[in-house]
Amino acid sequence: MAIKANVEKVEPGSFAAVVADEIVASILENVEDHGRCTLVLSGGSTPSAIYRLLARPPRVHEVPWSKVHLFWGDERWVSSDDSQSNYRMVCETLLSHRKSPEENVHRVDTSLPDPAEAAALYGAHLRQFFGVAEDEVPVFDIVLLGVGTDGHTASIFPSSEVVADRVSLCKAVQLPPAAGSRVTLTPPVLFAGRRILFLVKGRDKADIVRRVFLGSETVEELPAKLYEHGAERVTWFLCSEAARELDGVLA
Ligand code: 6PG
């Protein structure tokens, strides 16, 4: 059975550079096309090496940062200086170039009293920024996503009610007691993106990658399968180790 998905298999050593170049090219295409680029950033550890490359020569000089608006696909409910904060990770990597105007950095405000309020405000901010009505969904130019070994993407976790949410733009999610809360963009927003790049690296992701492409689990069991809602606009960047259980079925 051949996989019906756009998959780029990349050697681990060049993964960050290949993805960084793809992001630069896509940013430039969008700026050329409509004068700006709206980019949803993924959290976690995989993207940090990519963000660092974007913040350094030569790539940092290729991107018109004043025309790039940065958003977060999800955020952990911690203070912005917490080591678990996706905002902090981006500040220490991508934003270390200090070329992004403050008004271009659209972060989730985790200083608010609770994640539900932060999610509502972030959703309202998206409506205002994109000028979309209550029954419309903002369309981001580029959406970056990762996949957890349990099949979550952004902070859309297995069996979470947000998997089926087709109304909200942004939701607060409560994780198992020890793992706290998160704020996440919802599937309608994430998968409306003009381009969606899944970034998956590491041997530990091989099993989940196989299950996403070849397994029979539902999107509730394996939220990363939501990619099928926009498959033609999705590119999976898989390092060869994460793709190793697909050998023989990659087109
Ligand atoms: C987060 C991310 C999450 C991440 C996956 C993969 O806030 O953690 O948004 O969805 O992309 O957990 O994380 P790694 O890239 O670190 O494996």
Supply database-style keywords.
7 helices; 251 residues; binds 6-phosphogluconic acid; globular; alpha/beta; 27% helix
Q: Could you walk me through the main structural features you see in this protein, from its secondary elements to its overall organization?
A:
The chain has helices at 15-34, 46-54, 59-62, 86-92, 115-130, 187-190, 206-214; strands at 6-10, 37-41, 68-72, 74-76, 105-106, 142-145, 170-174, 181-185, 195-200, 234-239. The protein is α/β, with parallel strands linked by helices and 251 residues long. The protein has a seven-stranded parallel beta sheet with strand order 1-10-9-6-2-3-5, covered by helices on one side. It has a three-stranded antiparallel beta sheet with strand order 4-8-7. Strand 7 (170-174) and strand 8 form a beta hairpin. Helix 1 (15-34) crosses helix 2. The longest helix has 20 residues, at 15-34. The relative contact order is 0.18. The model has no long low-confidence stretch (mean pLDDT 96). The site of 6-phosphogluconic acid has 14 residues, from loops.
What compounds sit in this structure? 6-phosphogluconic acid
What is the strand arrangement across the widest sheet?
1-10-9-6-2-3-5
Point out poorly predicted stretches. Answer: none
The total beta strand count reads: 10
Give the helix level as a range of percent: 25-40%
Backbone CA Rg? 17 Å
State the secondary-structure class. alpha/beta
Q: Judging from the principal axes of the Cα atoms, what is the shape?
A: globular
Percentage of residues in DSSP E strands: 15-25%
What is the CA–CA distance across the termini? Answer: 9 Å
